[in-house]
Design goal:
mainly alpha, two-stranded parallel sheet, 16 helices, 4% strand
Length: 339
């Protein structure tokens, strides 16, 4: 069965290859449209804040969050070298957008590529992904580490508090990062300086409170949406996690990533990143070509489909049960006597 799955994953990867490659016109249209939309939203929010029209702000924060999610997906594609036809273009676009997403481009590109290289590997995860352990690994932890892992995996903390803290605070300092200094210091420090210049100038022009009320809440909304999407892309019941000796990149990429079967409008809002099994199988496909790949390779619709309603039940999953070949919650693991 494992051999068949691995062969099938390689065969589907070859079929997805046809959709690799950027289209300059589509990329420019998507980038320009999203930047203009975000600029308009920020301008309206700034005007409302300066005129104390507070009731206008919440819907603008949500719209701003959606536009930032879409821009983050473009930055993400740039990190894979798939959004723009040239390497230089991807780097320039990625760094430009990083000032809006508060996410250091080169640093995040490095950690995210580490995630792609180790996704589903129980022995090598923890960098650029949601740290996940198996039941056996959890039982081998010290009581202190077990408690820390439990607190980390609580949905309210992981997605409600943790993700905004990562984007707004953790990405502001090169200290305590689990990557080589050369991979984080230049990128993080350069972005911090750019943020000071750009938003410092905005504050000098329009005042601190209007600027903060226009920008920060949308960033929090972005972190919530992005954190949930990132969680659902790999933390689902019938996922795929293996110890390194039994791990295969193609199998893990396809079967360890979900097909988040969202309504069309939500796919648009999230840059089609819900078609995550395709993205992991072939990261050279830009976001604007993922739907066409799904249409051309219908077998992909049958692999790990999860609806929005089904996904809500995944929030408490926290441990990989190796014997059962599925994710379980702490409650379920305790009830079954696993921990």
């Amino acid at each position: 069965m494992t051999t068949d799955r691995r062969a099938h994953a390689r065969q589907l990867a070859r079929r997805c290859d046809a959709f690799k490659g950027a289209h300059r016109g589509r990329a420019a249209l998507q980038l320009g449209g999203n930047l203009l939309a975000l600029a308009a939203i920020y301008a309206l929010a700034l005007t409302a804040a300066m005129r104390s029209a507070w009731w206008v702000l919440p819907p603008l924060w949500i719209l701003g969050g959606v536009m930032l999610v879409r821009l983050f997906i473009i930055q993400h594609d740039c990190g894979h070298g798939s959004f723009w036809p040239t390497r230089r273009g991807n780097t320039l676009v990625g760094r430009l957008i990083s000032v809006l997403t508060f996410t250091p481009y080169a640093f995040w590109r490095y950690t995210h590529n580490r995630h792609h290289a180790t996704s589903g590997d129980l022995d090598r995860g923890g960098v650029g992904d949601v740290f996940t352990v198996s039941v056996e690994q959890y039982r081998a932890m010290s009581p202190r580490d077990q408690e820390r892992y439990r607190k980390f995996r609580r949905p309210v903390f992981l997605m409600g508090i943790g993700t905004p803290l990562v984007f707004l605070l953790r990405y502001r300092t090169p200290f305590f990062q689990r990557v080589p200094a050369a991979k984080c210091w230049p990128s993080i420090v350069a972005l911090d300086l750019a943020l000071i210049l750009v938003y410092g100038a905005a504050i000098a022009l329009w005042g601190a409170l209007p600027v903060l009320l226009s920008v920060l809440p949308s960033l929090v909304v972005t972190a919530w949406i992005g954190g949930w999407m990132f969680f659902m892309q790999h933390q689902f019941e019938r996922g795929h996690w293996r110890r390194h000796d039994d791990w295969d990149w193609y199998e893990a990429s396809l079967y360890g990533s979900s097909y988040y079967a969202l309504p069309a409008w939500l796919h648009w809002c999230t840059g089609h990143i819900g078609l995550h099994h395709i993205h992991h199988l072939q990261s050279g496909i830009p976001n604007y070509r993922l739907p066409a790949c799904l249409e051309a390779v219908p077998e992909l619709r049958e692999i790990n489909p999860i609806t929005l309603r089904e996904s809500l039940a995944c929030a408490h999953l926290a441990l990989w049960h190796e014997a059962g070949d599925r994710m379980v919650s702490f409650t379920e693991a305790e009830y079954a006597g696993l921990i």
